[in-house]
Amino acid sequence: MELDPAALDLRERYALMIGAVQPRPIAWVSTIDGQGRRNLAPFSFFTGITASPMTLCFCPARNRRGEPKDTLANVLETKEFVVNAATERTAEKMVATSFEYPRGTDEFEKAGLTPEPSARVKPARVRESPIALECRLHSVVEISDGPGGGSVVIGTVVGGRIDDSILKDGRIRHDALRAIGRLEGDWYTKVAETFEIPRPKA
Q1: How far is C-alpha 114 from the chain's CA centre?
Q2: Which of 50, 117, 130, 159 could be stapled to 134 by a disulfide with Cβ–Cβ 3.0 to 4.6 Å?
Q3: CB-neighbour burial class of residue 163 (10 A; exposed 0-12, middle 13-18, buried 19+)
Q4: pLDDT tens, the chain, 202 aa long
Q5: CA dihedral 66, 69, 72, 76 (to 10 degrees)
Q6: Which CATH class is domain 22-186?
Q7: Cα–Cα dist 11/82, whole Å
């Protein structure tokens, strides 16, 4: 098929976007609002940007009414967030936090997760996650503000926690982390089969 986004409705564009960009890593983002109320939600438009400084981004989309996610509102208010790793062990609880609860609902409590104090930011880490990257807001790029639109949230990693159990010689091992990725619809993937290709040398 030839792709013409202008000829598609929102549902069709969304289905093709999440189908074309896969597998997608998942940022499980914890925030607090100005009153200190916790929020936790997953985002699969997510990636690292640079190592110096350590910088990453995730993209919260607006809902069908064009309203921003609580995560974005909290980040704009407090300028801090934590990106927790989504793994096979936490998959079902991660999905439970994707539900659109009323603002102020504590998804840690709803999903039976343990909030762990962060070292350098105010939002809590997810104790059950083997990686927690504590971030301060660098900037927000608004792409569009209508239904299906969204923003790019860029954060600088200022601290965090990496479980020793997933480290070997100072590096995170994928076979120990057992991260999951998002596919189309309600499908997810495990890192089940891997292969190594050495990069060309001059």
Answers
A1: 18
A2: 159
A3: middle
A4: 999 999 999 999 999 999 999 999 999 999 999 999 999 999 999 999 999 999 999 999 998 888 899 999 999 999 999 999 999 999 999 999 999 999 999 999 999 999 999 999 999 999 999 999 999 999 999 999 888 899 999 999 999 999 999 999 999 999 999 999 999 999 999 998 899 999 999 8
A5: 70
A6: mainly beta
A7: 30
pTM above 0.70, yes or no: yes
Q: Which helix (H) or strand (E) holds 23?
A: none
Sorted by where each begins, the domain ranges of the chain are 22-186
Spell 109-134 as b/e; 16+ CB within 10 A means b. Answer: eebebebbebeebebbbbebbbbbbb
